Each structure stands twice: as C-alpha cells, then as structure tokens.
Amino acid sequence: KVGIPEFLNGVGHGVETHVAKLESEIGDFQKLLVTRTLKLKKIGIPCKHRKLILKYAHKYRLGLWRPRAEPV
Which PANTHER family match (predicted)? Predict the structure, then answer.
C-alpha cells in the first residue's frame, strides 16, 4: 500500500520534507496523483520539488514506476 510518505520517500531529492504539508492539505494519495502545479504552489512547495512530484505521479499513474517498499 502506497501512501503520501512512501511516495515522497521514493521520489527522494529532499521532496520528503513536505510530507506533513501535503498530508494536511491534500489528505490522501489518490488525490495527490491528480493534483495540479498551482495547488502545490499554493501549499508552498518549491518549483524543483513540484516538478519531481508531478513527474513521478505521472509515471506512477502509467504504471512505469513504484516507490521501493523498504528504505535504502
């Protein structure tokens, strides 16, 4: 089962610092997958991190990428 924390940890690159913000604003992982750039910007996530989140969310929707189950 993938949640927001697992997803952000899978993306890496410092994106996992936004776990609390995203969980309080968006709530669940399925909503995160369809979130747009502007919404992430309003929450206060920097550009590079928004790009990474959206890129991996897109790959995840297509089934090309899954976060690793165990932390490396």
Answer: IGR MOTIF PROTEIN
Residue 39 lies in a domain: yes
Global pTM reads 0.89
Residues 6+ apart with CB under 8 A from 42: none
> Is 49 within 8 Å of 15 (Cβ atoms)?
yes
| Residue 47 CA from chain centroid, whole number | 13
Spatial separation of the C-alpha atoms in residues 37 and 1, rounded to whole Å: 25
CB-based contact 2:29 (threshold 8 Å): yes
The DSSP call for residue 69 is S
Task: Provide the number of structural domains found in the chain.
Answer: 1
